[in-house]
Amino acid sequence: MMSTDIRADGKQPDSSAYERKMARHKPGLLPQALLDDVAREHGEYLRGLRKRAEPEFTSGNR
Length: 62
Fold this sequence. Notes:
Low-confidence stretches: none
Shape: elongated
Helix content: 40-55%
Order of helices and strands: HH
Largest sheet: none
């Protein structure tokens, strides 16, 4: 589905959506050390959730 370049009020837009998208400044990639830290912290958080949930699942209430 194609969109038109004319707004509802009949005026031409300042720029097309494609031009606005291409003009955006994209952030650089995150450093690998930061990504590793986030992954490690997330893993620790998930392991903590699992430890807290294990008694519920191992008590025979399945």
